[in-house]
Specification:
Elements lengths: L27 H10 L12 H10 L6 H14 L12 H13 L3 H8 L3 H4 L4 H8 L1 H10 L4 H4 L3 H15 L2 H15 L6 H21 L3 H15 L1 H15 L4 H15 L5 E6 L2 H10 L9 E7 L2 H14 L1 E2 L5 E2 L12 E6 L5 E8 H9 L29 H10 L5 H12 L4 E6 L4 E5 L4 H9 L6 E6 L2 E3 L10 E6 L18 H13 L1 H6 L8 E4 L8 E3 L6 E3 L11 E5 L5 E5 L3 H8 L4 E2 L1 E3 L5 E10 L4 H11 L3 E7 L6 E10 L5 H9 L4 E6 L1
Parallel strand pairs: 2-6, 7-11, 14-16
Antiparallel strand pairs: 1-2, 3-5, 4-5, 5-6, 7-8, 9-10, 9-11, 12-20, 13-18, 15-16, 15-17, 19-21, 19-22, 20-21
Helix pairs in contact: 2-4, 3-5, 4-5, 4-11, 5-8, 7-8, 8-10, 8-11, 10-19, 11-12, 11-13, 12-13, 13-14, 14-16, 19-22
Length: about 700
């Protein structure tokens, strides 16, 4: 399959501000010849990078191009004699990559590093030479995109290269910008390789590079990469989509007419706006065709409206929904709630009087630039270094570093095995949504969609989350397995017991790699503890004291034995009622006990009861807690410190990490009951203590 066959030029994406109208497609062979001949004059840029200079000046009119000239000369000299498999001189590759970034609006440092990105890897140029000639910043970026040696890493070279690249991206996102442009040009010219190698490279692009482009917001690169991968991995569906587009090309396209109507509406409303029709790329058309039984002519593109200010976006929306029939289910406000990859726009759909339905995107020109170029459009993140950054810090704080990247950098340190890193990286990048939750201290945590309280615990506390015993979400107690939603407030409860650890079933609810790696590591090093913390159902544990307790209530029935009811265990000074039961005994209940109504309903004889002067009493308490090792021992110790005797204790099987304890206790003085209940509540993991 030729490079041209994998590049759907017949249906290009409309990007008016990124590709200047009238500019011809680059002739790589002509550029290659120009590269070999070199410049004709030392006081002007070589002809070979004239396109780069033109595209760069379109975004940065005052840019100093002298550093690009020096970078080009070093790259051309060092790559001289090297040829690509497609037959062009090798210098055409860094030139093409640099042109891609220049059209996206990358600043001069990025373009300089792009021209040099293969010199250290493929030539005799060293990093020290790059640093001496172009400075630390360019050197860092070039080092970040340089592959590790296969001779040192063998089969692990590819995952280790990506690990190195991602770590470097954590310090400077421009590293990944160059890698994405590099992969795009390689994919454009992939047709010269064997089909099996094409498929292997396309799969890595699909699983790793395209998700990274999506997360960094570089839609211009992501959409073309998707089409190129689609053509290689799904050639039959690709050809079906091509035929589908061709079949609708001859039909009357309603979108230009709708765009004209929109222009008229906005002109009458006095809103200055640019209205264009954006054709969908191949993968987008394929998805729409699978979603709908029959493809409509208006499905092949969308109407894009560009305005000057945020307020204009909502003014446009109001006019559209007033003058056309809105499709309410299609409305999304990504301006008020931006996507985690910086994307902002208003999305809606409107129906015309002729019955045509058109999807409409409304955004400012700045939003459009960021939507297309993502982090590339943000320029140099170190133009104004943070005042709090200490001198000599090895790691600079990058204001463009997104939350998902910070999480990735954290967990990759715990995945030394290349296979584990490679597998977990693909799984992490497969998450297509991110949520933000608030911590109890007011901070925030960025988590993937579907994350649980377990993920929040490891994101906030790292390995200290092994001792997490519960959580409150929006003020309510909940199990650690509970899924979080965007905007939730999470308070995580940790045990002070150093031996506490995660249960095996935590892995069923952990979504983030950091949590899964930490839990798996702990379970492997504590196999006995892991077995002890399993939540498999088991019989209730009961502990019974050596002696029973006498009742300290007196019934107005001479010689009748008196006993306190176990259902409500009344204690002084509770209001009580007595009833004669079989055998002539009197059972004493609290007056609000449900059993009192039942006794009266069946006609039991009521007997007046009062408390003796003695203060000792027996009571049953229920303790609700989160499961953890040694909890029963800690509760029993807290009870003993209050001078209370345990008559019996029952521990029910855990349910979703929650455990219910029932204690029948003999108190020497009923007035000590509130203090006893407070002491039990203070035991780590216990969140409620109540009378039975």
């Amino acid at each position: 399959m030729s490079a041209e066959a994998t590049n759907p030029e017949a249906h290009p994406e409309a990007r008016p501000e990124l590709r200047r109208r009238g500019r011809s497609r680059l002739d790589l062979r002509r550029l290659g010849r120009a590269a070999l001949l070199g410049p004709t004059s030392r006081d002007r840029l070589p002809d070979a990078i004239g396109h780069v200079a033109e595209a760069h000046r379109a975004h940065h009119p005052d840019a100093d191009l002298s550093i690009l000239r020096r970078a080009y000369l070093l790259a051309e000299t060092s790559h001289r004699g090297q040829m690509r498999k497609s037959g062009e001189p090798y210098i055409t590759h860094p030139l093409a990559v640099t042109l891609i970034l220049a059209e996206l609006g990358a600043e001069t440092t990025t373009l300089t590093a792009s021209l040099l990105h293969d010199t250290v890897e493929d030539t005799d140029v060293t990093l020290d030479q790059v640093r001496e000639e172009f400075g630390d910043e360019v050197c860092f970026i070039v080092d970040g995109v340089t592959k590790v040696e296969k001779i040192d890493y063998g089969a692990a070279a590819e995952p280790e290269t990506f690990r190195k690249m991602l770590v470097a991206t954590g310090n400077d996102v421009r590293v990944m910008s160059i890698k994405l442009a590099d992969r795009l040009h390689n994919m454009r010219t992939l047709g010269v390789m064997r089909p099996d190698k094409q498929a292997r490279i396309a799969k890595v692009t699909r699983d790793v590079l395209i998700p990274l482009a999506e997360r960094l917001g570089v839609q211009a690169l992501k959409t073309e990469l998707e089409d190129l991968v689609f053509a290689i991995l799904h050639p039959e569906e690709y050809e079906e989509t091509r035929a589908l587009i061709a079949a609708h090309t001859g039909e009357r396209d309603p979108l230009p007419g709708i765009a004209d109507s929109v222009r008229g509406v906005l002109r009458d409303a006095g809103i200055a706006a640019e209205v264009v029709v954006r054709p969908r790329h191949f993968v987008s058309v394929h998805r729409i065709s699978r979603k709908r039984e029959e493809l409509r002519g208006s499905d092949l593109g969308r109407v894009l409206i560009l305005v000057g200010e945020n307020a204009d976006c909502y003014a446009v929306l109001g006019e559209l929904h007033t003058c056309f029939t809105p499709v309410v289910s299609e409305f999304k406000d990504f301006i008020a709630s931006p996507k985690f990859n910086l994307y902002q726009s208003l999305h809606t759909a409107v129906a015309t009087s002729e019955g045509h339905v058109a999807e409409v995107i409304v955004r400012t020109r700045q939003m459009h630039r960021v939507a297309e170029a993502g982090v590339v459009a943000l320029g140099n993140p170190y133009t104004t270094p943070p005042a709090e950054a200490a001198e000599g810090d090895e790691e600079r704080v990058d204001p463009t570093r997104p939350g998902w990247l910070s999480r990735l950098l954290d967990w990759q340190q715990s995945a030394p095995d290349p296979d584990t890193f490679w597998t977990v990286l693909r799984a992490e990048l497969a998450q297509d949504r991110e949520i933000t939750v608030f911590r109890a201290d007011g901070g925030t945590l960025g988590l993937p969609g579907g994350a649980s309280c377990i993920d929040a615990a490891y994101a906030q506390y790292g390995e200290a989350a092994h001792g997490c015993i519960g959580a409150r979400v929006n003020g309510r107690l909940t199990s650690l397995s509970s899924r979080l939603s965007d905007g939730d407030t999470v308070q995580l409860l940790l045990s002070h017991d150093a031996s506490s650890g995660p249960a095996a079933d935590w892995l069923d609810h952990a979504k983030t790699p950091a949590a899964r790696i930490a839990i798996s590591g702990w379970l492997q090093t504590h196999p006995d503890s892991a077995a002890a913390t399993t939540t498999a159902a088991r019989a209730p544990l009961s502990v019974v004291g050596a002696r029973g307790g006498g009742a300290n209530a007196v019934a107005d029935l001479p010689d009748a034995p008196v006993r306190l009811a176990g259902c409500c265990t009344p204690v002084p000074p509770d209001a009580v009622a007595g009833f004669v039961v079989r055998g002539g005994a009197v059972t004493v209940h609290r007056v609000h006990c449900p059993a009192v109504a039942q006794m009266r309903a069946v006609g039991r004889t009521s007997v007046a009861v009062h408390w003796r002067a003695t203060a000792d009493c027996r009571v049953t308490l229920l303790a609700e807690s989160f499961g953890r090792p040694h909890l029963l021992a800690d509760l029993t110790e807290a009870i003993a410190r209050e001078g209370v005797e345990v008559v019996s204790a029952t521990v029910e099987p855990p349910v979703e990490q929650r455990v219910r304890h029932s204690y029948t206790l003999q108190l020497p003085d009923a007035t000590g009951l509130p203090a006893l209940m407070r002491a039990m509540r203070d035991v780590p993991g216990v969140y409620d203590v109540s009378r039975a």
